[in-house]
Amino acid sequence: MNSSKIIDGKQLAANLRKEIADGVSRLKADKGVTPGLAVILVGENPASVSYVTAKEKACAESGMLSREIRLPAEISEAELVAIVKKLNDDTVIHGILVQLPLPKHISEKAVINAIAPEKDVDGFTPVNVGRMMIGEECFLPCTPHGIIKLIEFSGMDIRGKHAVVIGRSNIVGKPVAALLARRETNATVTLCHTGTPDVSHFTKDADIVVVAAGHPNTLTGDMLKPGAVVIDVGVNRIPDATRPKGFRLVGDADFESCEKVAGAITPVPGGVGPMTITMLLWNTLESARRVANG
After folding, report:
1. Statement: the pTM of the whole predicted model exceeds 0.70
2. Which of the listed CATH numbers 3.40.50.720, 1.10.730.10, 3.40.1280.10, 3.10.560.10 matches domain 141-273?
3. Closest CA to 266 of 182, 210, 224, 222
C-alpha cells in the first residue's frame, strides 16, 4: 500500500500564525488594543523553560505583548494565587497561562481555579470546561482545538465519521472527544483507555484515530482501517546512541507501520506540537477582541 499523506503541523501553524498576526495588527489599528499574554513559570523544569521560551518567541512574532513571570520553586500556593488574581485585574493582560506542572506543595487545581474564566486562554478552568461541554462560547483547550484543525487540514470531513480517542486525560483525551462529538463536527466518538479490553476492536472501525496515551507503540498499523486519519499526540524519548543527545522523540503510534495503512498521519515531532502554542495565541487574540468590542 502507498505511504500516507503527512499532516504538516508546522505548515498549518505557520498559516494560522499569519492570520493571527494580521488580526493583531488590525486590532491595534482599529481599536488601539495590543493582545497581552502573561505566562507564569514556577521553578526551573527544563521542558517548561523551553516551552515558555517558545511561547514568548511566538508572541513577539505575532505582535503580541508577552509578560513572563518567573518565580522560585519555593513560592507558596497563597503567593502564587495572589499573583494570578493581580493579573486578573490587569487591563493590559488578556490571557493568563500558568505553566504546568507546578511544585508538589502547590495545588494545580487551586491555581487554575484562581484564573478569571475570561482570561483562561488555556481553556482549563471548570467554567470554560463546562461551557465547552454544553456548547456555549468559551476558550477551547489549545491541544484539542489544534487537533481538530489538523484533522480538517488533512482534508477529512469530520461530520458523520467514527472517531476513536485513545487516552482519557483531562488535558487531551476527554476534551478532544467532546470537541469531536459537538454538533459542528458531528462525529461518533469512542473513548478508549487502560480499561478497554481490546482497543483494536474499535480502531479497526475508525475513520479518525487520536492517540494520546503517553506510551510508544500504543497504535500500530495492523490496528487501523485503511485510509484512516491518525493524529499522534504522544511525545516519548527513546534511547538512541546514534543521536547527539542520546535519544530520539517518537509518538504513541508506530509511525512506520501506521504510515503504510493510514490515509494521513501526523509526524512526531512536527505534528500536534506546533499547533498547541498557535491555538494559545488564537485564544489570546480572541480574548483581546472581546475586551475591545465591549
Report:
1. yes
2. 3.40.50.720
3. 210
